[in-house]
Design goal:
Helix content is 54%, strand content 19%. The protein is α+β, with helices and mostly antiparallel strands. The chain has 2 domains: 203 residues, no CATH class; 206 residues, no CATH class. It starts with a helix and ends with a helix.
């Protein structure tokens, strides 16, 4: 039995080597389909992993309450041109005092400002926050120190990495003064570079930490106030917002959903319009996992279509081979070969084709990570501005199941599309086959 199988494989290899170009093109379709399955799933897994990591950074036990600007008609008076909306300091007090499951609540106020030092300017997001903000957002201090309780009401600032580089490119910023509007602030610290977070669906927008500047929340309120007026296209408009965000941390992940519902009830009672949003990272994580499963299914379907096309190509080639080898089939039948032997011969050739293409496709697919990084480096050197920020931090993650699936599908395609040509060859009339020129 073993010798017969080896003989069949040997004959199959010899037959394929007689038509190298045809066999290579047939295997190419399976190669592309197999590699496509692995590559697409790896890229999808990489994007999904990146999104899930960013969600996890928000904290599974955190609840993010954000100010959201409603429609212009609801927020703005035509006469005053001032939009009033968002979270209030009273909301923060009510949340802290009424919900006992809360471990920590961090209020935040964010404003866009130009910071100045002599002739140097840096467009920055001025963040009014408390001492807990550092740990909450996993920031690290590179120089100096972070804000503390003694800094309340003081004109002190901690600069993010890029902001410090723009304002003080050649010197240590600690102890230096910067201007923000009509006030100056003394730099007491500088943070290390931190990877930006990408936007997650429609719930959270992207966040760039390296261009921030951090001041005590009370200082921002005293110096800047809640009303910020700006001139846009010649018109003076303003926003009246007390807090941009409140991040709430609870002790147990099982109480996150319940606490979020209580917060929504409190806010709904004191807000006449939908000028806030309650985001639960735990729910975002579940949503991201569901999206990943759907995305992987679609990718496998797309790659499966590619394998299907490759299988049709192999069937066409094998049918042409049957026609060309009709006389050979007649001779073998005349010498005593049974139909089963003919079927085994042609089916073996088909499986060898798809197996070779599938194996090469798997090997190429496993090189997804190094090849992607090399291609990204080349494109970055050629046109650094043309590469999206999300691509710079993207790392393909090969899923073992995709490798197994691609091999199984490629072999299945070989068997499925090899059966018909093999049966057609086996059912040729031996006498008619011998007469074939």
């Amino acid at each position: 039995m073993t010798n017969s199988l080896l003989r069949t494989v040997e004959l199959g290899l010899k037959s394929l080597l007689l038509q190298k170009m045809r066999a290579g093109l047939a295997a190419l379709g399976i190669f592309i389909g197999t590699a496509t399955v692995i590559w697409l799933v790896a890229m999808g897994e990489g994007v999904s992993y990146q999104a899930q990591q960013q969600i996890k950074e928000l904290g599974a036990t955190n609840i993010i309450v954000r100010s959201v600007m409603p429609t212009q008609e609801e927020t703005q008076s035509v006469r005053s041109r001032v939009s009033t909306y968002g979270l209030l300091r009273d909301d923060y007090k009510r949340i802290v005092s009424n919900i006992t499951s809360i471990l920590r609540a961090v209020p935040i106020r964010e404003l866009q400002f130009d910071l100045r030092v002599e002739d140097r300017t840096a467009e920055s997001k001025l963040v009014g926050c408390t001492e807990e903000y550092l740990q909450l957002n996993r920031l690290e201090i590179a120089r100096g120190r972070w804000l503390n309780e003694r800094d309340k009401g003081e004109n002190v600032v901690v600069l993010a990495h890029e902001t410090a580089q723009r304002l003080f490119p050649y010197e240590n910023p600690i102890g230096k003064a910067i201007w923000c509007g009509s006030d100056f602030y003394v730099v007491i610290g500088q943070t290390r570079p931190r990877t930006a977070s990408a936007a997650i669906g429609g719930s959270l927008e992207s966040r760039e930490y390296n261009t921030d500047a951090y001041v005590p929340l009370e200082t921002l309120h005293r110096r800047m106030g809640d009303l910020i007026m700006r001139r846009v296209n010649g018109n003076l408009t303003g926003e009246l917002v007390e807090l941009s965000q409140i991040t709430v941390t609870v002790g147990d992940i099982d109480t996150v959903d319940q606490t979020a519902r209580v917060i929504e009830m409190l806010l709904r009672k004191y807000h006449g319009k939908a000028d806030y949003a309650v985001v639960v990272p735990k729910e975002l994580l579940r949503q991201a996992e569901r999206t990943r499963a759907t995305f992987n299914f679609l990718l496998v379907v797309i790659a499966g279509i590619s394998l299907l096309v490759g299988g049709i190509g192999i069937m066409n080639i094998m049918l042409a081979t049957v026609t060309e080898r009709t006389r050979e089939i007649g001779v073998r039948r005349a010498l005593g070969a049974k139909r089963q032997h003919i079927v085994e011969q042609f089916l073996t050739e088909t499986i060898l084709l798809t197996g070779a293409g599938g194996l090469l496709g798997v090997l190429f697919g496993l090189l997804c990570g190094p090849l992607f990084r090399a291609l990204r480096s080349l494109l970055t050197m050629a046109r650094p501005d043309a590469i999206p920020e999300v691509v710079h931090s993207l790392e393909p993650r090969i899923a073992p199941w995709s490798v197994v699936l691609s091999v199984v599908i490629s072999l299945g395609v070989g068997i499925l599309f090899g059966v018909y040509p093999a049966r057609k060859a086996a059912h040729l009339d031996p006498i008619e086959a011998l007469r074939h020129e």
